[in-house]
Every structure is written in structure tokens, then in C-alpha cells.
Amino acid sequence: MKVNLRSYSFGRTMPTKSLTALLIAFMLTPLLFTFHAVLQKRYSQSVIEDRIFTQNGYRITSQQHSVKLDFRIDPAYIPRKQGEVFQPHQLIYASNHTRIYLETVAWYNPPKNSDNVYIILKFDPTYLYSKGSFVTDTIFNEDNSYGNVMFMPDYYTDDGSVLPINDGNGSREVFIPVEQLEGLSGGLNLRFEGFNLVKYERV
To answer: What is the superkingdom listed in this entry's lineage (predicted)?
Structure first.
């Protein structure tokens, strides 16, 4: 029995235009990866942030300790026993290209120390390439150095009464001794004053 095998040329199975497009795409792929790497190096948020903070290619045009935060922690997110950790990720500020979140409220039990309620704020700025602004707890000095502004919030109950809480930290991270929250049945209100509004531009 004779079997006839029908042969197909590569050219018939793949049209010439498709083959050309495939070859071009293959040749351009390394260039696209290189271009992407250059853009990342020049425009990525981490790179811009580093250059703003070190004032390398950017300069600080103004800064004002004028941003106030006033937000409430719901009683459901206030730890009542050791080991409790809440992460509400609650948006408490959105302006000047910056979002600030109430990120974590936890019962903190360090070795050889008293129990504390630990509150963490998360800053999520968006840095623009040419010029912009952001909110931070950082202060920029004339010699191009920078450091953190340390200040503590004021605390209030839901009815507006002032809570005489004395904690040893400030700005983004706050420790409150748990005995100072005893008897608190409602929410806890925190009022910060003096976060830094920073404006910058590319030079």
C-alpha cells in the first residue's frame, strides 16, 4: 500500500507578515525591558522619595507644621487582653498627595515592662516627578539633613473629656499603658497637631 504524505512548507503554515512581526517582537523585547528598567530607575516612587529626602535633584521649597489629624478608634478595635491585634486600615487623612491610615492597634507586652496598647499610623504618599507636596513627620534641615518631629497626641473620650494619658512616644507610633485605658467603655479619640506639610520641586 502506498501512502502519500502531504508536506507543508513553513511559509505556508506561518504567513510571511506574521513571521516578520514575530521576529520584530523578539528583537524588541530586550529593548523594552531596558526601557522599563530605565523608567523604574528614574520614576519609581522609592527613587523619587530618596532623591527628595536627600535633596539630590530636588529641593524643598517650603515646609509647615500645620497638618492636624483628628480621628476616632472604635471600641471594637481597642484591645482588652494580651495578644489582641487589630488592623483596621482605616483611612484618616487624604490630601496633599498623601493618605494616612490607622494601621494597627495591638496589645504590646514587652519583656520586663508594663503592658501597652500600641497604635501605628501608616503614611502612604504619592511623589510626583516634577513637583508636589506630601505630609510627613519628618523635618528637613538647612544642611540637607532630616529627622523626625516628635510630639504626642491628645486623647479624648467620646463625650469630649480629656484623658490624662502620659505615653513616651509620638507621631507615627504611640504606646499607651493599659492601666490608663481602664474604665474606657467607648471609643478613643486622638488629636495630633504639627505634622509637616512639605512642598518640593525638581531642579
So the answer is: Bacteria
Is residue 77 a contact partner of residue 184, using CB atoms and an 8 Å limit? no
CA–CA dist 177, 199 (Å, integer): 36
pTM for this prediction: 0.78
The contacts of residue 80 (CB under 8 Å, 6+ apart) are 107
Cα 127 to Cα 134: distance, rounded to the nearest angstrom: 8
196 within 8 A of 171, measured Cβ to Cβ: no
Domain ranges of the chain: 13-43, 60-202
Q: How far is CA 58 from CA 79, 123, 125, 126, in A?
A: 43, 21, 16, 15
108: its cell numbers: 504590646
Q: For the segment 52-70, what is each residue's pLDDT rounded down to a tens digit?
A: 999 999 999 999 999 999 9
**Long-range contacts of the stretch 167-171 (C-beta < 8 A, 24+):** 167/116, 171/121, 171/137, 171/195
- Select from 121, 141, 66, 138 the least CA-distant residue to 96: 66
